[in-house]
Structure to design on (370 residues):
């Protein structure tokens, strides 16, 4: 028999996806406000002006240092792993792998026939792996936030690394939601379907001068690099406020609106505090229950944008998730490959902290009746 959750317990908005994430209604309505950009060439002023607005807004939001540039290209973060493998790693990479995203990038460089074997520092899901200096490594790579497990790591350069070594930070689910000092990294790359509430199919990266110089040197050195995966090509096009291939213009519209919304409310500091408030609601609730617990055991490593909560084995998380979905609460399922009896909650800036608190009350209601 279906279970109905009382309406006074339900969140105002039941979308808690970890990516794609909640899209604000204003973002969607913005598509009707700017018809001039839809169905037009991405190399003409209406779309190029939109890209220019995004690049300037992201630079302001994330505090891009002098000389750093906001670059964008087609294909999403998955494509950027190949871009970085081809254009930013000269000989050898080291990876921190503590979830699906870090592991996938590590596999990309490990399989590259023109690179030396990558070093991979692994940690069990639910904890964080940390990079460490090693001779011969010219590119270090780590996630800022691991979407699959709900663990986050600080963004900081590797002490005692070889001169000229780059730090590449996967910020797919962290950018726009977690504090960051971009002087501590050379490539802070992400996609717009998480904190920025847009659709996928695009990657953005804030690149240091050293990263752009590395790409130019590697690409001039004779390594075969498809044009679609050329970082120098992406830089050249971005400086013209365009992408190599036609982008999804609707994504650009929603992304631009989200960046403006964040800046208008107080920028990254405001967004990060809002996410932290949601996370406190979730983790305090879990720690107060004898049948729930945060999956990430160290509080400092618990993500404030993707929360993972283990349920007691006697409680079927799949059944809880199904009942929540029947009542309009969506996408709180665990990462499929993790295979845990848990809830995973996206707490990006668009999500109201009060809605996270309402979600926990709904879980209480369901568990009490199962």
């Amino acid at each position: 028999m279906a279970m109905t959750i009382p309406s006074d317990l339900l969140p105002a908005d039941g979308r808690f996806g970890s990516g794609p994430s909640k899209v604000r209604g204003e973002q969607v309505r913005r598509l009707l406000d700017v018809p001039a950009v839809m169905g037009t060439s991405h190399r003409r002023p209406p779309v190029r002006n939109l890209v220019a607005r995004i690049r300037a807004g992201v630079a302001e939001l994330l505090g891009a240092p002098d000389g750093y540039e906001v670059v964008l290209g087609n294909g999403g973060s998955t494509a950027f792993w190949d871009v970085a493998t081809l254009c930013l790693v000269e000989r050898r990479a080291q990876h921190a792998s503590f979830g699906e995203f870090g592991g996938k990038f590590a596999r990309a460089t490990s399989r590259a026939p023109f690179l030396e074997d990558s070093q991979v520092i692994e940690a069990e899901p639910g904890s964080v792996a940390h990079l460490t200096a090693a001779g011969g490594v010219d590119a270090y790579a780590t996630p800022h936030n691991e979407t699959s497990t709900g663990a986050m790591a600080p963004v900081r350069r590797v002490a005692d690394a070889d001169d000229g070594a780059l730090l590449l930070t996967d910020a797919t689910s962290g950018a726009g939601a977690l504090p960051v000092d971009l002087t501590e990294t050379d490539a802070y790359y992400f996609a717009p379907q998480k904190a920025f509430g847009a659709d996928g199919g695009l990657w953005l990266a804030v690149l240091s001068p050293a990263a752009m110089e590395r790409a130019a040197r590697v690409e001039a050195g004779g390594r075969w690099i498809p044009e679609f995966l050329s970082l120098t090509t992406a830089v050249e096009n971005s400086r013209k406020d365009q992408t190599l291939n036609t982008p999804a213009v609707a994504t650009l519209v929603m992304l631009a609106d989200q960046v403006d919304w964040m800046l208008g409310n107080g920028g990254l500091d405001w967004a990060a505090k809002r996410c932290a408030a949601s996370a406190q609601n979730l983790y305090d609730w879990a720690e107060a229950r004898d049948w729930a617990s945060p999956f990430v055991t160290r509080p400092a490593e618990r993500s404030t944008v993707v929360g993972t909560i283990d349920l007691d084995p006697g409680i079927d998380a799949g059944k809880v998730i199904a009942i929540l979905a029947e009542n309009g609460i969506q996408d709180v399922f665990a990462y499929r490959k993790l295979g845990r009896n848990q809830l995973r909650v996206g707490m990006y800036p668009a999500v109201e902290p009060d809605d996270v608190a309402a979600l926990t009350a709904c879980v209480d209601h369901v568990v009490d009746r199962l």
Summary: The longest strand covers residues 69-74. The chain is about 35% helix and 15% strand.
